[in-house]
Amino acid sequence: MRKDSRLSRMLHVLVHMHHLEQAVTSDNIAIMLGTNPVVVRRTMSLLREQGYVNAVKGHGGGWTLAKPLHCITLLDIHRSLSEASLFTIGLTDEHTNCPIEKAVNLAIDDVLHEAGQLVLRRFAEVTLDKLAVEYTAKLS
């Protein structure tokens, strides 16, 4: 299963947007991320739907933050991105009548669920301004 890096990529973009203090075009974000502007627009529109960014049209337009970083958590952005799976570990379903497979899947599923809940609780505690502070501290 392919890793989903949209969360880390969008966090990266949002902190940059905070420091740039001006509208950032999809083209510029695409260059920053090494991707296509269409992918950027599609992903940023998910954040716009939740009220975390605005799209400004016309000359000098682009994407801007709609909320200050201290009002946005990792969980907010994770949920905005359609709550992709936190883990790429999968369960097998080739032998659905096998009691061993059922036991293995149940054990793995329980552990992944518990770990996922812990990750989401921690995501809720981390606001993006903390990421920006760490970035600024490393520049000094």
Automatic annotation (TrEMBL):
It comes from the Bacteria. SUPFAM superfamilies: Winged helix' DNA-binding domain (SSF46785). InterPro entries: Tscrpt_reg_Rrf2, WH-like_DNA-bd_sf, WH_DNA-bd_sf. This is Rrf2 family transcriptional regulator. It comes from Rheinheimera aquimaris.
